[in-house]
């Protein structure tokens, strides 16, 4: 295992996330208060919260939480679910369990950095780039061409971070089948699922399509509850699930008991929360449309197919890196430049930046952004 590199996104956020006046690149949907979440609890979960003791919890996760999560899937049971301290721990452990020296993995680009760097620390990795000139299309023939006899994992993320891309249901289903045919585990990051403005674009969950596939999800993104730090993997391969549990003994061992009860409330109330968050995004999109239309000579903009992040193109002569740095330093508006999402394995665009559209009232941030642009020489 090689040493993992600095996590570019988190290093950047360490400098700016809580000091910038306007966080316009948030990757999560609008959160809620403790009181708002507890108001959604049924009698059983309210009692569990009020009588909670602070002992250790089960490594697989709270049984009630796992049962609630299983209801999200067509073909999964509670025993097919294992919970983690967020999606990052789940991704890290899954790659440690699935990959080793002599193996090979295929990942998409651009991506959440850990999706590439964690496999790279374990084995050889190939990348397939989403095509920015074709609305971030995924060419399945390129995926097939990237697969080797020793490929163990194909890792994907839809709705995609940072692009907001959702591929066609038929293509995703075909991807699951071609992995099955080759004995490959499809690792599917589904943390933005449920925020598609067009419900017909919502993809099936990989764990429903294949017994070998792993579906990754979390309370942080679509549900807007990152402070809970609860994620999970659903996989119908019980032997693999047991290996994930044993690997977790070396990381968190078990999750926070209060977080698991609160996550149980949120998962049970997910339809309400998702509808609320989709409404926030739908209300925000016209404001972003209007902003980018005003500065059309500087940007190419398209709202995401799903999720609450988008990846516009910056057309200015100074380049997106200098642009984002000056914007946060001079106007206090935080964006994430393309360098955060560069791949070490394939070409990725260098003229993009990530913007978040899932938070309440983006007007102050957009106003500060626009005022800064108008005042530039």
Task: Give an account of the 3D structure.
This protein is of the alpha/beta class and 377 residues long. It is 39% helix and 14% strand. The strands form 4 sheets. The chain has a 7-stranded mixed beta sheet with strand order 2-8-7-6-5-3-4, with helices on both faces. It has a 3-stranded antiparallel beta sheet with strand order 10-14-13. Helix 9 (206-209) links the parallel strand 6 and strand 7. Helix 4 (63-70) packs parallel to helix 11.
Weakly predicted, low-confidence segments: none
Give the structural class.
alpha/beta
Question: What global shape is seen?
Answer: globular
Number of strands: 14
* Average pLDDT figure: 97
- β-strand amount: 5-15%
- Order of the strands making up the biggest sheet: 2-8-7-6-5-3-4
State the assembly state of the protein chains. Answer: single chain
Query: What is the alpha-carbon Rg in Å?
Result: 20 Å
Keywords: Aminotransferase, Transferase
GO molecular function: pyridoxal phosphate binding; transaminase activity
Organism: Wenjunlia tyrosinilytica
Domain Aminotransferase class I/classII large: 39-360
């Amino acid at each position: 295992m090689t040493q993992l590199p600095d996590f570019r996104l988190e290093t950047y956020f360490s400098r700016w996330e809580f000091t910038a006046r306007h966080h316009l690149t948030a990757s999560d949907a609008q959160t809620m208060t403790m009181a708002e979440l507890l108001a959604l609890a049924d009698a059983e979960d309210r009692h569990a919260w009020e009588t909670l003791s602070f002992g250790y919890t089960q490594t697989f996760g709270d049984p009630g939480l796992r049962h609630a999560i299983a209801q999200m899937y067509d073909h999964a049971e509670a025993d097919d679910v294992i919970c983690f301290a967020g999606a990052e721990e789940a991704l890290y452990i899954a790659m440690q369990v699935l990959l080793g020296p002599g193996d090979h993995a295929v990942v998409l680009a651009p991506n959440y950095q850990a999706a590439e760097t964690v496999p790279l620390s374990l084995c050889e990795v190939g990348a397939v780039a989403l095509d920015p000139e074709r609305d971030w299309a995924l060419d399945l023939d390129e995926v097939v061409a990237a697969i080797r006899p020793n490929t163990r994992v194909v890792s994907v993320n839809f709705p995609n971070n940072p692009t907001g891309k959702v591929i066609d249901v038929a293509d995703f289903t075909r991807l699951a089948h071609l992995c099955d045919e080759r004995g490959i585990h499809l690792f599917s990051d589904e943390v933005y699922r449920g925020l598609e403005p067009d419900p017909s674009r919502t993809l099936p969950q990989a764990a429903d399509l294949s017994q070998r596939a792993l579906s990754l999800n979390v309370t942080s993104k679509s549900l807007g509850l990152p402070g809970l730090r609860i994620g999970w993997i659903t996989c119908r391969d019980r032997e693999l699930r047991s290996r994930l549990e044993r690997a977790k003994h070396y990381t968190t061992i078990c999750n926070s008991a209060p977080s698991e009860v609160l996550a149980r409330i949120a998962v049970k109330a997910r339809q309400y929360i998702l509808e609320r968050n989709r409404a926030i995004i739908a209300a925000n999109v016209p404001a972003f449309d209007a902003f980018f239309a005003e500065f059309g000579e500087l940007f190419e903009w398209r709202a995401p197919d799903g999720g609450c992040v988008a990846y516009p193109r910056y057309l200015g002569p100074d380049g997106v890196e200098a642009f984002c740095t000056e914007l946060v330093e001079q106007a206090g508006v935080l964006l994430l430049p393309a360098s955060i999402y560069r791949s070490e394995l394939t070409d990725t665009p260098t003229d993009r930046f990530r913007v978040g559209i899932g938070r309440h009232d983006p007007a102050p941030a957009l106003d500060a952004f626009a005022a800064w642009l108008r005042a530039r020489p």
